Amino acid sequence: MEELKHIVESFRAERGWDKIDTEASLAKSIIIEAAELLEHFQWEEDNYDKKKVCDELADVLMYSLALCYHLNVDPKEIIKEKLVDVARRYPKKQ
Question: How far is 75 from 42, CA to CA, in rounded Å?
Fold first, then answer.
């Protein structure tokens, strides 16, 4: 995760994006990229271009990670915390 953090933060800093991004702009970008991801499944759920889907998924992940780093939260930790909460609400099937 540290390597990925360095890659994302360096890329954004080299372009000055780290100076202009806000929590709101990053959240909006996540939604926009998620919508672009969804477009690939809009008409035919089983017929999609995997490369294009992966490109959009990468955009969603990069913006999500950028928001984590902007908020100074560890993505691994917030995912683990969320899974504890979800496990409480949706216990394992017997």
Answer: 29
Determine the Cα–Cα distance for residues 38 and 17; give it in Å rounded to an integer. 25
Tell me the C-alpha distance between 4 and 14, whole Å: 15
pTM score of the predicted model: 0.89
DSSP string, 16-58: THHHH--HHHHHHHHHHHHHHHHHTTSS-TT---HHHHHHHHH
Q: What is the CATH number of the domain that holds 61?
A: 1.10.287.1080
- For 26-46, what is each residue's pLDDT tens digit? 999 999 999 999 999 998 888
